[in-house]
Amino acid sequence: MSNSKLSKPENLQVLYEDNHLIVVNKRPGDIVQGDKTGDTPLSEVVKIYLKKKHNKPGNVYLGVVHRLDRPTSGIVVFAKTSKALPRLNKSFSEGKTKKTYWAVVKEIPKETSASLMHWLVRNQKQNKSYARSKEVPNSKKAILEYQVIKKLDNYGLLEIDLKTGRHHQIRAQLAAIGSTIKGDLKYGADRSNKNGSIHLHSRELAFQHPIKKEEINFKAPPPDDPIWNACL
Questions:
Q1: CA-based torsion, 60, 61, 65, 70: positive or negative
Q2: Which of 68, 150, 201, 221 has its Cα between 20 and 30 A from that of 230?
Q3: Of 96, 206, 103, 217, which Cα lies nearest the Cα of 160?
Q4: Does pLDDT of 2 surpass 90?
Q5: Is 69 a catalytic residue?
Q6: How far is residue 127's CA from residue 19's CA, in Å, rounded to a whole number?
């Protein structure tokens, strides 16, 4: 997926900014941090944005707190100070953040709401995780709760409360119950989305501000496409 249209500071959708952090709505296709593709990562785009906005003469400090998969969209938090970064990292790694995702699936689960628990095994070569019903060697426990919140003509919208943060967790767990995310070829979708995205969106995020210690909450609109628009 080309991200030539995406990786520009003027296209950045900033949800919140203060002296310590900046929260953006990632578009599908952007990578949060640099990888082997050599494509401009979102972290660099945010740096350029901050440099221009605040007329900073030198290098801009920006810490990556967490990541979203490249084909997904939604809320990404970056730290603007070296004081905020370790506190935010700790909050995310210890599961003190409340993460809510939206997923569009073709096969709506039989139960309108449920808690899913699997043991995920990550295959580094394939960049894929496999969900197992029982603990196996090198597996990590993965828990999420979902609720069917809307039924469209051919799809269903699930709201997901993520309890653990594992590699490709939502994608692997939903595929394991036969509810593959729209466009997610890697996990069994019958066709891809034209732009290479998948219909998985980090909708809402709540956590304690690293400095002010007050609870903050963010909500991000999903990408502008006919199916996401029908979900709103």
A1: positive
A2: 68
A3: 103
A4: no
A5: yes
A6: 36
Task: Answer for the pair 24, 13: CB distance below 8 angstroms, yes or no.
Answer: yes
Task: Provide the 10 A C-beta neighbour count for residue 4.
Answer: 10
One DSSP character per residue, 35-88 reads: -TT-PPPHHHHHHHHHHHHTT-SSPPP-EE-----TT-EEEEEEESSTTHHHHH
Over the Cα atoms of the chain, what is R_g?
18
Nearest to 29 by CA among 54, 4, 61: 4
Question: Which one of the listed residues 18, 35, 39, 69 is annotated catalytic?
Answer: 69
Structure tokens, 138: 């090198």
Q: Where are the beta strands (DSSP E) in the chain?
A: 14-17, 21-26, 63-64, 73-79, 98-105, 113-123, 128-132, 140-151, 156-162, 200-208, 215-219
Query: How would residue 5 be classed by pLDDT, with cut points 50, 70 and 90?
Result: low
Report d(CA 195, CA 119) in Å as an integer: 31
pLDDT by residue (tens digit) across 140-182? 999 999 999 999 999 999 999 999 999 999 999 999 999 999 9
Q: Residues with Cβ < 8 Å from 160, sequence gap 6 or more?
A: 100, 101, 102, 103, 144, 145, 146, 170
Q: Which of 15, 17, 139 is nearest to 75 (CA)?
A: 15
Residue in the block written with tokens 């595929």? 175
Q: Is the model's pLDDT at 7 over the cut of 80?
A: no
DSSP state of 11: G
* Token couple for 171: 């994608």
